[in-house]
Design brief:
The protein has 13 helices and 24 strands. The chain has about 475 residues and is α/β, with parallel strands linked by helices. It folds into 3 domains: about 210 residues, FAD/NAD(P)-binding domain (3-Layer(bba) Sandwich); about 110 residues, FAD/NAD(P)-binding domain (3-Layer(bba) Sandwich), CATH 3.50.50; about 100 residues, Enolase-like, domain 1, CATH 3.30.390. Strands 1, 2, 3, 4, 5, 6 and 19 form a 7-stranded mixed beta sheet that branches. Helix 1 packs parallel to helix 8. It is globular and about 70 Å long.
């Protein structure tokens, strides 16, 4: 039986980062992975979906080409080729992770890991046994369905099948108006599908600031994307290869039909068959319960990433992985401030956020001051013809701290790094507003929003 300092079950963004960090700290590490390293993110999530969304942006650019003085006789759009490219991108990223693990001397064992004790893992189907001083569970999560709805992979699909859909559906209903739902809505509308999004809560992206969500809804209307909010799916029936979806809104039933239904209502933890209960690892709402140092209820067993249900984001999983390893190495890392984790949605206009929404800040009793600035007041946005959007900063009037950053607009996700650093340093609007930003850049929208908190925005007039 081979013995390691750390054994990681799962090679996704949490698992492989944890293993590499362990190697950097001089600890021997092994990763047990039943599929390919990179996990859901690199293989069937973040990376291939963003490749497809970039294709969708290019399609929109061609459709708007005449505005920029470019005309053509015929435009052929091939979704299958876009899917092929997305798979190539994914493969390249996976090979990169494999290279990094090899160079850091991290052993990768193929197979499904199961805890036999607090420091033993059995790998199937090889029956190989691995012993480790510490174990990190990083098995991720999978798309869940609605009660009574069967995913057949053809007419009713999840994001996993959607990433391999090589023909544009004539019509598609997307159940769930969160990040997954609105990203696929943008993608399929760009390729010509009739798209309808069904969301149970009152707005698309219901966890984001309401003002941002409303602006996204207006943008989707302009793009021809239909949506029903405050709507519950009562049932889905399949007949002759088409789906009939019964939707209840305000107590009234409505039947919608489409060629394809995409279920994007959240994720469920991959905990089955891991031997967690036998090892004494407690679950909470189906996810592995952890403390601020990623420790589970079983000494020597840690958990990170989507399997914990904390925040189902790749960068959060990676950060959790580093904290777990630093804790194992005796370095006493600081707790991860989940309320300051950046959130990104990659439809166009993109949505990016960090911290409290305006409503959340008021609920916490914070005396709120808000600053907003529109993209249409920014020179770079006007120059590239992408003036839809805004930046909104939510501040604590008593302390001056910016407690929420909310953005919607072209490449808004690329503006969020400034917010991440600003949040870590507890930046005030004055500090952010009077830091000189290069001109012309979209980042000036963030600066102007900071100035607007005290009514001092330079490039926009409000009565």
């Amino acid at each position: 039986m081979t013995k390691y300092d750390i054994a990681v079950v799962g090679g996704g963004p949490g698992g492989y980062v944890a293993a590499i960090r362990a190697a950097q700290l001089g600890l021997s590490a092994v990763v047990v992975e039943e599929d390919r390293v990179g996990g859901l993110c690199l293989n069937w999530g973040c990376i291939p979906s963003k490749a497809l969304l970039w294709n969708a942006e290019l399609v929109h650019l061609f459709q708007d080409a005449e505005e920029f003085g470019i005309t053509y006789d015929a435009l052929h759009i091939d979704l299958a080729k876009a899917v092929d490219r997305s798979r190539d991108v994914s493969d390249r990223m996976v090979k990169g992770v494999q290279f990094l693990l090899k160079k850091n001397k991290v052993k990768v064992v193929e197979g499904r890991g199961r805890l036999k004790s607090r420091n033993e893992i059995a790998v199937q189907p090889s029956d190989e046994m691995i012993e480790a001083e510490q174990i990190i569970i990083a098995t991720g999560a999978h798309a869940r369905s609605l009660p009574g709805v069967e995913i057949d992979g053809r007419t009713v699909i999840t994001s996993r099948e959607a990433l391999e859909l090589r023909e544009t559906p004539g019509s598609i209903i997307i159940v769930g108006g969160g990040p997954i739902g609105v990203e696929f809505a943008y993608l399929y509308r760009a390729y010509g599908s009739e798209v309808t999004v069904i969301e149970l809560l009152e707005h698309l992206l219901p966890l984001e600031d309401e003002e941002i969500s409303r602006q996204l809804e207006r943008a989707f209307k302009r793009q021809g994307i239909a949506y029903r909010t405050g709507a519950q799916v009562a049932g889905i029936a399949i007949s002759n290869g088409r789906a009939a979806v019964t939707v209840t809104v305000d107590g009234h039933d409505e039947e919608l039909s489409a060629d394809v239904v995409l279920i994007g209502v959240g994720m469920a933890a991959n905990t089955d068959g891991l031997g967690l209960e036998e090892a004494g690892v407690e679950l909470e709402r189906g996810f592995v319960r952890i403390d601020e140092k990623m420790r589970t209820s079983t000494p020597g067993v840690y958990a990170i990433g989507d399997v914990t249900g904390k925040m189902l984001l790749a960068h959060v999983a990676s950060a959790q992985g580093v904290i777990a390893v630093e804790q194992i190495a005796g370095r006493e890392p600081l707790p991860l401030p989940y309320e300051k984790m950046p959130r990104c949605t990659y439809c166009q206009p993109q949505v990016a956020a960090l911290g409290l929404t305006e409503a959340q800040a008021r609920e916490q009793g914070i005396e709120v001051k808000v600053g907003t600035f529109p993209y249409r007041g920014n020179g770079k946005a006007i120059a590239i013809g992408r003036t839809e959007g805004m930046v909104k900063l939510v501040t604590d009037a008593a302390t001056g701290e910016i407690v929420g950053y909310h953005m919607i607009g072209h490449d808004a996700t690329e503006l969020l790094a400034e917010a991440t650093l600003g949040s870590a340093l507890e930046t005030t609007p004055r500090e952010l507003g009077w830091a000189v930003h290069a001109h012309p850049t979209l980042s000036e929208v963030v600066r102007e929003a900071a100035l607007a908190v005290d009514g001092e925005a330079i490039h926009f007039w409000t009565e």
